[in-house]
Amino acid sequence: MSSAEVAIEPRIHYLNVDYGIKSWLLTTDHKRIAWLYLMAITFFFTIGGVAATLMRLNLLEPQGLLLEPETYNKLFSIHGIIMVFFFLVPSIPAVLGNFLLPMMLGARDVAFPRLNLLSWYIFMTGGSLMVYAVVAGGVDTGWTFYTPLSSLYLNTHVMAAAGGVFIAGFSSILTGLNFVVTIHKMRAPGLTWFRLPLFVWSMYAASIIFIIGTPVVAISLALMGIERFFHVGIFDPALGGDPVLFQHLFWFYSHPAVYVMILPSMGVISELIPTFSKKKIFGYHFVAFSSIAIAAIGFLVWGHHMFVSGQSVYAGLVFSALSMAVAIPSAIKVFNWTATLYKGSISYEAPMLYALGFIGLFTIGGLTGLYLASMGLDQHVHDTYFVIAHFHYIMVGGAVMGYLGGIHYWWPKMTGRLYPDGWARVAAIIIFVGFNLTFFPQFILGYLGMPRRYAVYPAEFHTLNVVSTAGASILGLGYIIPLIYLAWSARYGPIAGPNPWKSTGLEWTTSSPPITHNFEETPVVTEEPYGYDRLAEGIPVA
Amino acid sequence: MGMIASRREYQLHNTQTAVYEQFDDRTQQHEASSLGMWIFLATEIMFFGAVFTSYTVYRNLYTTAFEIGSHHLNTPIGAINTAVLICSSLTMALAVHAAQTGKRKQLMAYLVSTMLLGCVFLFIKFVLEWIHDYKEGFAPGLHWTYAGPHTNQVAMFFCFYFILTGIHATHMIVGEGIMVVLLYMAWKGRFSAERYNPIEMFGLYWHFVDIIWIFLFPLLYLLGAHF
Questions:
Q1: Contact between residue A120 and residue A128 where contact means Cβ atoms under 8 Å apart
Q2: CA angle (A226 as vertex; A222, A228 as ends), nearest 5
Q3: What angle do CA A205, A207, A211 make, to 5 degrees?
Q4: Once rounded to an integer, what is the mean pLDDT over residues B37-44?
Q5: In chain B, whose CA is at the least distance from the CA of A218?
Q6: In chain A, whose CA is at the least distance from the CA of B62?
Q7: pLDDT (tens digit, 9 = 90+) per residue, A529-538?
Q8: Is the pLDDT assigned to residue B13 strictly greater than 80?
Q9: What are the backbone dihedrals phi and psi of residue A373, each rounded to the nearest 5 degrees, phi first?
Q10: Interface predicted TM-score (ipTM)
Q11: Is A451 helix (H, G, I), strand (E, B) or coil?
Q12: Do B159 and A233 touch (CB under 8 A)?
């Protein structure tokens, strides 16, 4: 009798250990901070998504359906700035990374919990400034803030927008710092570097980019702001400044930042593929080192954004070769995932659908990246929809599929509840179809010569634009469905149990949702990760 | 362990064993904060690095104009300030040593000296240099009256001068603020021979800020100067 009473007694975990808005806003628990980020990032994704929807609607007609060109410019700027700096860059590191990293390391929390909370507040301060810029009338620099356009000519809220990005950058820096220290110093006994989950390796690589790259973009935007505010010459060619210098500084961060958007996603996929193939990952060391290689080479390729900027042919040559070199570690990952799938006992749960979708979209995005790394071809498709399609395949097809796949995979850990699997699979398929329908036509549009950033276009591009807009509406629907059933699941979903996917990761050995300090006692690691072969032999996994 | 006689001793006893809950022991905590600080300093190098790079690019393009700009800076005062800052680094190093050996009075004395030397530096920077430069009409965008050759490029030099020394001074002001907190903690007896981590970490920060100046001084004042 008494034992039954104990069983139905509500369990204390990190979600119900404390109540009230204050307990959330002042929390130093990495899992609660992950939720704070999840809320904020969903909000920013919505703003960016609405801007994208309006742009696609406008492009239904060659002469523009509903927007003035100035409004259109503001929409694509807002879409780009918010999606890049306030969604794609922080999404997986700040939400999934914060939630999972200490658990995957067998730690009680990140190394600096208060710094972690501080970085959320910094992020929100930057985000608020960005929202102010939007509400006050927007900004039309594009997300790249190119000088002298941004510093001399535009009469919009450039300072607020750039200030928002500047401030949010420090949130990235602190998150990266926290993660690197946590990975170095907080690993459980027995958890050697080569027993780390691949998600941790990808977080490590992304953190390095945060640490080295972000300060540079922050100071470049500050220099742009100083030039704009005091009308002094740093980048202004009329005063002897060099606008191309700004591009160098900007892309020194912003190209590696692309890998911040994709590397964490790759980490998620490296968790999903073995779990749902019930196989050990093929070539663990290669997958791990390819993350570091992508981060390292990623710092040497920024010049491929500047093939038409007037940089020397020889610089272009080097940047072109190095850009192509990034394909090697990227391909290593794809091949290893494919080899893991080979003869696996694959189950098509929703997270796995996202993972498979990721591989397809990332492969297309990666291969078209080789087109753009080739100088001659880049001259032809530069600043066309080909580029738009390419980086949406990488950054949206890659990063968003990984993010959604990760959210679906770890949702039972985060909430302790399951979501309706049928709906989740349907949503994943809708997103995949909608995505391809939206962006594949843009490859053709770009190749035919439709330039980016224009509110109007020649009538010959009409049909493909209609297809793209139709795809965007399907994609939009695909994003709304998970929002609904996940919100439902958080409250009413069936209880998940600690390990619904029968995964081998350390985070699944604790209860769902976990207690505040993750583990009842510090785990001791004695095995390599992804020991699914032991599962096949019928040995139960803890 | 013996009797705890005073409130201060109690606090000392308490803080000596204080390890934040996410860490297993003090060694792990100390290693984590050291690594964190060094990474932070790496981000600071990248932060300054972009401005240093831009400055170097333009100095290379407009050598004459930048030399003209250099001549209008007060090199002796800059040199005095460099000496002041190096002294503050010395007192900071001594403060760290005092903290490590658990000498509370010495620690406080060296912290106060470091703060004072920092204030002297900032006073010289603000009053004797910046305000002077401003009055002379060398503040691009605010008060620019220089009418000699290469006016745009000289303005660019001064632009970088104010940005670089401005960011550096901002770091020093932040440092002064942190030192006020550290001094208060030292006064409250929060540090001991076992627990001096914040002092050591701040020492790294202060030395870093000094090193930045060691690079700024020749780049801005000395390159191309004639005596």
A1: no
A2: 115
A3: 120
A4: 96
A5: B47
A6: A240
A7: 998 877 666 5
A8: no
A9: -75, -15
A10: 0.90
A11: strand
A12: yes
